[in-house]
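[audit] Reproducing an earlier prediction to check determinism. Same input, same settings, fresh worker. If the tokens differ from the archived copy the diff job will pick it up downstream; this log only records the rerun itself.
[audit] input (353 residues):
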Amino acid sequence: MIVQTVSLRNIRSYARLDLGLEPGLVLVVGANGAGKTNLLESLHVGTQGFSPRTRADAQLVRFGEQAGRIALRGMRGETKVEVEVTLQPAEGKRAKLNGAPLRAAEQLRLEVATLVFTPDRLAVVKGGPVVRRAYFDRVLGRLAPARAPLSVEYAAAVAQRNAALRRASARYSSREAIAPWTEQVATLGRRLVESRTEVVAWLAPGFAERADELGLPTARMTYEGEPPTVELLDARLERDLERGATGLGPHLDDVLLTSGTRDLRSFGSQGEQRLTVLALLLAEAELIAERRGFAPLLLLDDVLSELDPNRRRILAERVLGTGQTLITATQASSLPLDPAQLLEVSPGAVRAA
């Protein structure tokens, strides 16, 4: 989506703000704490229905105010798009798309593609397997929306089987009551493993190319896990009964991110981990543009601070042709190329420079 007009009222540090954004690369500069991240967060809420930093809507509204509103106008390919998100913590969050109310604000993510980089996204590389599983499941939802519910459905089946295991272990029910959930876990688990493996295969070539371009050679991603079967689950039933939990399936799998023979989680520097996340994001952006027919909105917060000048230039050149990108920095000189638009942020205000 190319955002053309943004209107914020009582969102975080903005009591009132209206601005127009240019297509291409928009550089947002300002002192630390001025509100640059708040602006990107508002765009994420306005296009995805939720914040990348918090799930507590009350934290999104300016202190001392009771509500907030984000209104966006822009283009999705050749189609005009208008979005409005209203935040009233006491009453919930409401969203409209082209004037029509949505059942849930998070439905926006099915209509508008937005990818975000924040420093805490390094957890995708340096964090545990649960973070990577969640990340790749979100990628699956963006690239194949029809399969977005799969991970939730699988998790619900595992929870039901675990409950049946505990009941049987305590002799509140029979072992036969576990069997239907074992079949569900096997069926949904196989579909989830196949879908995740497919996502990794989709991303892998672009990820390797973008990583190499950024100076991270021979980067690879490998899905580690096998589809569960009823036979395998039954074979470990005694252990599962003892633990009260299902010890086999994609809820325990991982995606290994490597450069050469090095596992980047354990042996990558923070700079290499940052490059890994950027390569993942750029690879996904290209896939979204190819599959959905329009480039995603890219929000890159504090992405330049730990990149050397050459890598900053490579990144800037790569995103120049990908629709619309907003990058935050403390000073304009951080970006080695001229942006399409330069915005200066001060507390409560944004102006074109």
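[audit] rerun output stored. Observation attached for the diff report: The CA atoms of residues 46 and 158 lie 33 Å apart.
[audit] end
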